[in-house]
Design brief:
195 residues; mainly alpha; two-stranded antiparallel ribbon; single chain; 2 domains; three-stranded antiparallel sheet; 5 strands
Length: 195
Amino acid sequence: MRNLVASIAAIVVITAFFGFAYPAAMTGFASVTFSNKANGSLIVRNGTVVGSKLAAQAFTSPTYFHERPSGTSPAYNAGATTFLNYGPTSSDLAKLVAQNAQAILKLEGPYNPGLTIHDIPVDAVTTSASGIDPDISPAYAALQARRVAAVRHLPLATVQKLIKENTDGRSLGFFGEPGVNVLELNLALDKLGGK
């Protein structure tokens, strides 16, 4: 009986500490020391939250850079991140990639003469692990640059420079791949004008 009481007391104490006190202390610490990150890395323009640096949102206008395909339902739902669990031999994956590639060819082809399916970066046609990755590869941004420049009546060199300025390198110089945050790039475009 004594062991049972000690076990129950240990469970209560450990649960109270690791389940409530410790998470509350870490949340409070993060809110004070890393306020922006702890609150979702929200991006505010003119006093209005326009999105998060950590979650993609849908851009459909040809005047903007587009993000990776979404794996969530509804699309770009930050409240329910998920991934499409298709294996490399899945016929559903093959259909999805083919469908996405055709959409890219239709959208970008008129601005990139000679564009073929082999020129399309992988991230343009596949979802990320979270389903809402906010970054695209520099190659996918470069593919879209001609369209954005043409539609906004901007010099291509200006749009390419903006891509370069908004490209994040590898973490610590060797982890991961360079990426371009689509929301930040589009906000920089709007600041530049030319719509």
